[in-house]
Each structure stands twice: as structure tokens, then as C-alpha cells.
Amino acid sequence: MCSDAAAEGYTAWMNSPTVSWKRAFRSLYYQAAPEPDDPRLTRGKLALLVIDVQNVYLSRKDPSQLSSSERATYDAWTPFHERMSQTVIPTIQRLQTRFRHDGHEILYARIACQTRNGRDRSLSQRLPGWNNLLLPKDEWESQIPAPVAPEGDEIVLTKTTDSALTGTNLRLILHNLGISQVVCCGIFTD
Mean pLDDT for the chain? Predict the structure, then answer.
């Protein structure tokens, strides 16, 4: 745990106009680590991966129809939904436009199950709480929203676990496409 003075100093440093992208979002733990090299992106080796941008995460109920406890949950999620509509979706659209213009691949990873009852989901997707979603692959909730939907033959991977790398054949597809550099964006990109 750090002292208040250290936290204030870290906050001042993070808010400094001279902080580059290389340090702007680092945790205190990595503050003294050396800066990474600038990325060197290579045409023909680069793809955009849009992760977990799905209707289920962006839709909201009518707040006037909610109970007081449901309304409290609704209000708690309002900053997330505002950021999604005002920042994340427009940023993904700009990335898609640029990648398409430059002829790069765009791929999508979404959480969905192959069966209606979800029996094919991973154990992590069956846990109570946030992960306990039943998203059959053909239902509206599991689809990618229209503003950022795939175009043409852009590849959509359906994962029944948290990771697109362990829950799909993404590695094989990237290898087959000759992709070695991936820019990730979306909702759950940790």
C-alpha cells in the first residue's frame, strides 16, 4: 500500500501533459519500468480484433419500468453505457474505417454458445455473476451491434470461454492469414 503523498505524486505525474501513451495507463507497480519501443506495424501482417462488442452488453431496459433496486443497478452501469456510446463505439468505427481503407483484416470475437441451453459453455462461463450469461449464437443478444458489424467476409469467431485464443481457432486463422500483429479493441479486452 502506498502513502497518500506517494499517491498524490503519482496522480500528478499521470496528469502531467508530458506523459506519453507509454506511461499514461501504467499502474504504480510499473512506474519505474523502461518505456516500450514504439510499435512497428507491418502492412500485410496487421489485423484488428474487435472483442465482445455484442448487443447484450449495450442494450438497456426502459428505466421507468424498473424497480428501485433495478434502477440502482441501471444507474451504476450508466457511466459504462455512456462511455460505450460516446467513446468506444465511435473509436471502433474509426479503427474499422482505417483498417478497411488500408486493406487490413478485421476479425471479431464474441461470447456465444452453440446450443440453446448453453451446455457447451466452459465452466468459467457457467459461474454465477457477470459470466453467467446464456447467449445462444443465433439470438439477438449475442450478435455484434449494427454500428460496428462485420462487412463482407470479415471473420467472426464464437467463443464459449473468456479467451479468444483458447476458446477458438483464432491462432490458426491468424497464422493462415499471415498475421503477426493484432490491434485489440472492444469491451472486455483484458
Answer: 86
pLDDT in tens, 53-98: 999 999 999 999 999 999 999 999 999 999 999 999 999 999 999 9
* 109 exposure class (CB count in 10 Å sphere: 0-12, 13-18, 19+): buried
- Contact (Cβ atoms closer than 8 angstroms) between residue 92 and residue 151: no
Give 174's contacts (C-beta < 8 A, 6+ positions apart): 47, 180, 182
Alpha helices in the chain (DSSP H): 4-14, 21-24, 55-58, 68-83, 89-101, 123-126, 170-177
User: What order of strands is seen across the sheet that includes strand 105-111?
Assistant: 155-159, 105-111, 46-51, 181-186
Nine-digit cell string for 151: 462487412
Nearest Cα to 121, choosing from 171, 160, 84, 93?
A: 160
The predicted-structure confidence for 164-175, as pLDDT tens digits, reads as follows 888 889 999 999
The residue extents of the domains of the chain are 46-186
Is the domain spanning 46-186 CATH 3.40.50.850? The answer is yes
Residues 187 and 57 sit within 8 Å (Cβ to Cβ): yes
Q: What pTM did the predictor assign?
A: 0.81
